Amino acid sequence: MSLDPSYLDYPKRGYGQDMDRYDWALAKDRAPVHLASGAKIAAMIVVACEYHPIDPKKAPFNHPHGMITPFPDLRHFTSRDYGNRVGVFRILAALREAGLSATFALSAALLERARPLADAILNDGHEIAAAGLHGDALHHAGLSEDEERALIARTREAFAAAGIEPVTWLSPARQQSFATPDLLTEAGFTRVLDWESDQIPLPLRTSHGPLSALPLLNELEDFKLLVERKQDEASWVRQILEAKDYLKTEYAARGASVLGFQLTPFVAGQPFRITALEALLAGLAQDTDVWCAGADVIASAFER
């Protein structure tokens, strides 16, 4: 039985990825970007400080960092709380020792629960990004635009009440709906960390102006490698530094690249991992071809 020819018709078929958020092109055909600083690599460290409710609805799925066992999952709830009260301050100290800047993506729900954390981040000169309302407030296509707009508005209001006006956004579980980019720029966000389509920031088209998508590599995330894949800490450090060294070899042909990776306080902030984290940060800080900054600063550098 043969298929009807119309089966292969796809009304949204287009060049590249069948969408019009950005102009698709092979990296080899793109004009190289050279940063004013002369750096070959822009290292973007994102520290995800998220609040995960103990009784998540898990709709439409459970956040990978959320609760695991049936309610009340005190073991995982308290380990996440440990990260935001104890582990993250070890990460802050390690960054301070290395002289590096990072982006700390905070759930809005933490601003009242852990205001000293936000103050410590700001006092050390790091960028604060919005990580949505909390870990169980997921953005997905099952929401109406008004429902998703309300989630973003509640997040904005919480940050404004705390005297913080972030321009960078990290969705809970890095999950979006088709409307999320439009709703983010409508709310005043200009940077997003959910996409990883390239090694440089990509300007996404939205109905309210451009939105710079900076590549945050899921494959280098501490939770992914150390918890899910059960790699040892030395391998994790080696992988990130090898990625840095390899990207440098592409500089002559492709120009500067962004090396973005995520740290999770209840993972990287454990006492038995701090030595590995310090080695990783030292490997970045000691390389004169590497420039480490927050997401907003990096995006601005690539836009020039």
Automatic annotation (TrEMBL):
Name listed for the protein in its UniProt record: Chitooligosaccharide deacetylase
One biological process term in Gene Ontology: carbohydrate metabolic process
Residue span, NodB homology domain: 81-174
InterPro entries: Glyco_hydro/deAcase_b/a-brl (IPR011330), NODB_dom (IPR002509)
Family: Belongs to the polysaccharide deacetylase family.
SUPFAM superfamilies to which the protein is assigned, alphabetical: Glycoside hydrolase/deacetylase
Domain of life, source organism: Bacteria
Pfam family, one: Polysacc_deac_1
Known function: Is involved in generating a small heat-stable compound (Nod), an acylated oligomer of N-acetylglucosamine, that stimulates mitosis in various plant protoplasts.
Example of a GO MF term: hydrolase activity, acting on carbon-nitrogen (but not peptide) bonds
